[in-house]
Amino acid sequence: MFTFIQVQILQLWQTTLIALRALRRNKMRSILTALGIIIGVASVVAMVAVGNGAQARITSQVSALGQNLLTVMAGSKKSGGVQSGLGSASTITLEDAAAIGREVPDVVAISPEASTTAQAIANGRNWSTTVVGESESYLKIRSWKLAAGSMFTERDVRSAAKVAVIGSKTANELFGPLNPVGQSVRIKNIPFVIIGQLESKGAGMGGANQDDRLIVPYTTAMKRITGDKYLRSVNVQIASSERMEIAQQQITALLRQRHRLTEGHDDDFNIFNQKEIADTVNSISTIITLLLGSVAGISLLVGGIGIMNIMLVSVTERTREIGIRIAVGAQPGDIRLQFLIEAITLSLLGGLLGVLGGIGASKLVGLVANFQAIVSTGSILLAFGVSSAIGIFFGFYPAHKAAALNPIDALRYE
Questions:
Q1: DSSP 376
Q2: Helix, strand, or coil (residue 55)
Q3: Which residue among 45, 59, 299, 315 is least crowded, i.e. fewest CB within 10 A of its CB?
């Protein structure tokens, strides 16, 4: 004796088989109907993956700047009516850097910076590279490790020693496969001994190659290479990310006092907060990702409309079939369920193929753009869930229309 639940399950199974047979009879129509969902889901998955990958890449570049970093840069200057870039004005001194380290409580490390571009000559080769003057704390501030050798010391900074730490790109250009540690390199005819080699960091913010550089004590750079009496910038590491805004305010107040800037006068320096940069980048990246996903979601909507359109055509074409089913005992609920199952099946099939297509497309875009597109489980579940919801939503009206047919009229339909 069948129970009520068993009868319902059997009826559901039979209705599902009827729906699947109907889809199989019109294979090409079913494929074309599902194509809109496939394209929509693939677009959502791929666009969100590309957005996530771009966000991760930018975030990693910001993180590569260091931990809890504030960068104090000299302001810009005008010459002949032309505005020069940040760091061009002569406003930041070594005394300013020392005062920041001495009077701002949350500062844990500081590195005055002077830089220039110069020709480096070694091993019978020459290479134009960036020569950066820093303190012994620079690698700690930047969270940058050494591949070989060691960093120069505070004593080297005080004595303006002719020592250097070389980037991997510069080392490869000058020494090829040779170990550069212990070798000599000439910068403006001044010999420097290489005491360490940096690990590779790749491109930084703005796309500049961070590995193409020579790092020397800032005192050495200012006295022997650039001849500058002013700093380009000061790298400041703060104790914790929660204290960065307070430390920035304290540094601003200190420099305004030292530079005798009264109320109403603009700062002659700029302070870049790494945390603010990261937050801004993440916010912009999130907006772009949502925008890309929304634009791709429009194609999902179009796909749903396509399903409803084809299902309505199917109801019209199968009016007589529906009349026969009702005449032999099928209930309106069975007819409604049959057409709903057809719409949901098309949506689920389109969603599955769309997810696979989206993953493949995101990998292809990542290869072409030379970065890793990140396919998130959330975007897959969202796209798949939306495609299922579209099948139910856009399939309900055709299903309801089919269930509401008058069996006598349906049997007469030609």
A1: -
A2: helix
A3: 59
Structure token pair of residue 119: 């020709």
- The amino acid at residue 371 is F
Rounded distance between C-alpha atoms, residue 69 and residue 274, angstroms: 5
Tell which residue, 400, 403, 303, 398, has the closest CA to residue 348. Answer: 303
Which residue's entry shows tokens 């079939």? Answer: 321
- SS3 state of residue 345: helix
DSSP structure string for 283-342: HHHHHHHHHHHHHHHHHHHHHHHHHHHHHHHHHHHTHHHHHHHHHTT--HHHHHHHHHHH
Q: Residue 394 corresponds to which tokens in the numbers above?
A: 């856009």
CA within 13 Å, CB half, 239:
8
Q: What pLDDT, on a 0 to 100 scale, did the predictor assign at position 362? A: 84
* Rounded mean pLDDT for each run of 10 residues along the chain, 414 residues in total: 58 66 74 80 82 75 72 66 48 91 92 93 92 94 91 95 95 92 93 94 68 94 91 90 89 91 86 75 74 73 77 73 73 76 81 87 80 78 78 75 66 57
* pLDDT value for 137: 92
Crossing angle for the helix pair 244-258 and 94-103, to the nearest 10 degrees? 130
In 3D space, the residue among 233, 204, 251 whose CA is nearest the CA of residue 64 turns out to be 204
Q: Which of 113, 412, 381, 150 is nearest to 236 (CA)?
A: 113
Q: Which residue has the tokens 């057809």?
A: 342
pLDDT of residue 22: 66
CA 392 to chain centre: 34
Cα separation, 109 vs 102, in Å, equals 10
Decide if 333 contacts 403 (C-beta within 8 A). yes
Q: SS3 for 233?
A: strand
What are the tokens at 328? 């032999």
Q: How far apart are CA 390 and CA 38, in angstroms?
A: 12
Largest CA distance in the chain: 105
SS3 content of the chain, % helix, strand, coil (to 5): 60, 20, 25
Q: How big is the chain, counted in residues?
A: 414
